[in-house]
Amino acid sequence: MTKWITVVAFALVLLLGCSTQTAPAPYAITNANQLQERGVALYERGEYSDAIMYFSRAASEYQSLNQQEKLLVAQQNMAEAAFLVAQYEFSEHAAAVALKLATEQGDSASKVRASLTLARVYIAQQKYLQAQKEISIIQAALVDERNRMRKAPRDWSALERSALLTLAQFTLLTEPQNTQWLEQANQPSLFADNPLYHARYLRLIYAQKQHVNALEQALSIYTSQGFRPGIATCLEALAAHYSTLEQKEDALNTYRRALYVRLALNDAHHTHFNLMALSALYEEMEQPEVAIQYRELAQRLVSNTRIMTEIRDAL
Question: Residues 135-162: pLDDT tens digits?
């Protein structure tokens, strides 16, 4: 009899232990939520590298707690923040995880959002074949939404606006004569309450027509909004424009401005790009010693991305 009581008691302990493991402690979820909220706050302040760290910690907590829906949001946020500082491999991985989770959860909007991030990552790396798969998903979703909007008119969501611009960008890069999506993006109603959308559109106009005033307008909008990735992108395009016009000093000054913004963002990829562009310009201006200094900094950055602070001090 005693033996059976012992067995039953042991079984109850096991059951109670299992139930404790499957029900996450409230404080654990609260902690994960706080990490996520801190990441969002940092993202909104433009501190993307720090935001990535908090999103990553939140994702790890949600994974251990089996909070799949919240894990999906953390992965999405992490992918988008990483994209803005050109951590493309990290962004791609996080977006791919988000896409898998969104598919499993039947969340169509999150699936489009993940595909959108993946498409932008692939476009930035000029991996157009990989981007095509995601573009197809985005295009199908956008066409479906437009058909619904004809029956029940409503404002475009931020996700739909970004999808429209990404389709326009991809099409201009792969089919330069096809302006279908760019023309559809040119809707003043979409610009009214979304200046960053307008700035992205103006950058596409510059890419298509090389109208430098469109690029300057985009830079002005990004500056007024304090959106540093956009500011740096416009400065780099302007510097390249000055370089083609043989306006070397203007090009140098503008690349330097872009470099300082990329350093502030802790964007190693574009910091390297600007260092190499400055090195090439100094070579053209027959200042080989300065050119070598910039090139050596760029080479050291490739082997050790932790020297970003040292580069800031050197400049």
Answer: 999 999 888 776 665 665 567 778 888 9
How is domain 1-125 classified at the architecture level of CATH?
Answer: Alpha Horseshoe (1.25)
Q: Where are the domains of the chain?
A: 1-125
Q: What is the pTM of this model?
A: 0.87
- Please give the residue that has the higher pLDDT: either 128 or 23: 128
Q: What's the 3-state SS for the chain?
A: CHHHHHHHHHHHHHHHHHHHHHCCCHHHHHHHHHHHHHHHHHHHCCCHHHHHHHHHHHHHHHHHHCCHHHHHHHHHHHHHHHHHCCCHHHHHHHHHHHHHHHHHHCCHHHHHHHHHHHHHHHHHCCCHHHHHHHHHHHHHHHHHHHHHHHHCCCCCCHHHHHHHHHHHHHHHHHCCCCCHHHHHHCCHHHHCCCHHHHHHHHHHHHHHHCCHHHHHHHHHHHHHHCCHHHHHHHHHHHHHHHHHCCCHHHHHHHHHHHHHHHHHHCCHHHHHHHHHHHHHHHHHCCCHHHHHHHHHHHHHHHHCHHHHHHHHHHC
